[in-house]
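cache lookup: miss for this entity combination. No prior model stored, computing from scratch. Input as submitted by user K.M.:
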Amino acid sequence: MKILGRVTVILCGLLLLVYVGEFPDFADPQSPASTHVSPYYIQNALEDTAVPNLVTAILADYRGYDTMFEATVIFTAGLACFFLMRLPKKEERVVFYRHRATGVTLRIDDCGAVPKDTQAFHRIDSQWVPRDLIIRSTTRLLIPFVQIYALYVLAHGHHSPGGGFQAGVVLGASIILLAISQDLRSAISKIKEKTLGILSSLGVLIYAGTGFLCLLLGESFLDYGALASLLGTDRVMARSHGILIVEVGVAMAVMSVLIWIYYNLSSAGKQDEGL
Amino acid sequence: MRGYNMDLLNLIAAKANYWTYIILMMVGFYALIAKNNLVKKIVGMTIFQTAVLLFYVSMSTKKGGTIPILHHGETTSLDPGHVSALVNVADYVNPLPHVLMLTAIVVGVATLGVALSLAIKVYKTYGTLEEDEINLQLRNG
Amino acid sequence: MLNTFPAIIIVVPLLAALLIAGISFIDRRACFPIGVAALLISFAGAVAMLVNVVSTGVAMEYRFGGWAGPMGIVYVIDHLSALVLVVITGIALVNLVSSRQTIIDELKEKDGAFVALYLLFTAGLVGMTATGDAFNLYVLLEITSLSGYALIGLGSERAPLASLKYLFLGTIGATFYLVGVGYLYIATGSLNMVDLATIIPGLMDSGVILFAFIFCMTGLFVKMAMFPVHGWLPGAYSEASSPAAGLIAPLTTKVMIYILIRICLSVFSVEYVFANLDVGQIMVWLAIATIVFGSVSALAQTNYRRMLTYIIIAEVGYMVGGFFLGNKMGMSGAMLHIVNDAVMTLCLFMVAGIVVNRMKTDDRDGFKGLFRSMPFTMAGFVLAALSIIGVPPTCGFFSKWYLILGGVAAGNYWFVAALIFSSLVNAVLFFRLFEIAYFEPFGDDHHGESPGAGAVGIKEAPMIMLLPFLAVSFLLIVLGVYSGRIVTNIIYFAIPGGII
């Protein structure tokens, strides 16, 4: 198999390299890709949408339909991971507790209802390490700032590199940081799986719903100019606001899906202990 | 001979991005088809997709162009025709491939997530991630 | 109102899928009705659009975001897309309704997620068929693939491995297609199919366009399981659960063939593919290899569903070979076979679903004595088998007839021989099944339920599975009788004028 693989790959690579001469030069301003459709975007995006960031304007307005399906792809991935891996909630079998004062660990077999944490005892994972003071304090200080930064990235997507996807990823990363630095159970207690499932579908529903609203108002699907009457501005500013609305939906969806996939992957579907 | 050398050098220099992308794509493709371990195949798949990202983004650059965000001075008025008269197309790189690749990155991440879930399920069933051991178990059991 | 239908047939399943996924965390009983309602609206919209396109003769165009192409994304519904849209939404609807009990029994708490993934898969297929933008096709292809991997992955014990193999090959195919689109963009600067069709004739000698064509074709061949990159199909379709197999098997490969036809006819024009590049002959040889390989491998299988998957591979060979023959008869046969094969495959997989439901096995031995205990199911099965073999008046005969006429007209007698060989092999396969079902004594795994000396009662499938199945098998005859009208009113308009 390896020999067949090497032969295929070398043949394929040589075949591709032979024709390299026909491609346009690297960084050529006169290549067909840079002179056919993209000048329209560069020259007219600001007038059409009031958004200086050309990438956001194209992403959420000119090709907004593609972006809706991109959000659906990430939602499908979260749903697929849940569908494939989630195991039904079972009665806990083996549970570990630790005495805070002395460090003695208890193991309970055939545990039915799990006792709550008390002053003396707290529940630990099967592979528990003592919590480090530095990690605990640093993450507790960092996470709020990370989330504020994510909101900044979302809100400034019109004027600087950023937007919904980037903000969603950073927001998701903040919660995953909590799950990694403390343990999965504390993250799950802060954001439950049911919340994540509903938030993710709500996020993509905001995107598709905005488009459907424009359809119901008589214009094309995802034509934000139709929202001008609802928002009380002219058509150009309505496009700018429409872009912000869908970016918020996308950020919600991406954040929830990333955390959801992390919950399912790190605990292999059981969602009791993580990495 | 010298003319031929100059041509070859020119070929490599002017099309450097295509060489890089083809070599990277072949590395990922090889890992995807020839490696034994399922997770190594998944890594190869990611490299394969990243090579295509590199290809698209490299085709959007322009010599002397800057990021595709309009400068502050040109955004003072939104009158039709005002901005398009001021903006010089060659100053900004082509934004369309960047947009397309944002989508492709998300698709790659989604595929990675689903692939890893399937790999976890395979591991739970067969106890191993090596493809030849799994085939042995399939043949025997 | 009618001009918004191209958007509605894809947006409604998408919204319904999102709603179902959210609601499944709150109340699971509402999921199924919402799904069926969404597919019903889609099906009605597709039929309305087909009627509109046939009566007016003009393709429908829809601009998303209000931007005209090539600035924005445009959907174009012409004769062929409208026909394939009706097939997709109809099959998805019938399969969902008939699998209701199996979904509830096998999947228990995840039935909401299953219906949501089902609807996302259907929405992806609908979008792929209707789109007029090359990159939008890639995104929808990935939605379909991802939901397909998930739907297949939760089946039998070997399902995750089969799905992972499908994932690797499917990603190769989709990424190759993406590279092809990138090459097209580099050479032309546009992603809109209509725009590309106007620019490419000026670039016919370019190596970039040649490689774009090769990459797109290779990617699509991997996704439609042509020989030799078919390795993912038998495992994936036979290890999936019955509802998932009933949705994915009839539709995926056929829609990929539709996309191949769309790209060859509408993007790279007919002159480029057949005159300039002259790939017709090579493709027909590949198709012949696929037909022979599929038929011979089907003979070796003892598992009913695996046998069906190899028959699907052979049918893919019919359609690709018929298209690349390059004449009107061949192309009509290929396009008609898309419709016919989808319905035939649905019928056969529904039989598999019924047999699995009653006999708990999809092996060939599960068919023992079924003629006596399940006469209605077997009647429909006989119709489907005759259609695959190619016996009039079922629809399978007519599409094969067009393909054979096309092969004769092109002088490609190897292709005609492969078609006849495949029909003979199918006859052997299905008559073997008839023999097992008719002559073998009824072998059920009843634990102590002994029906009395010699008399076996009729233990038919549940009504909700039986009625849709009988409707679909009856449809095989209806499609056969109306084949001529379908071809002259719809398919002839889809073939460009230059083909004779």
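stored under new cache key. Chain A touches chain C through 55 residues (CB under 8 Å).
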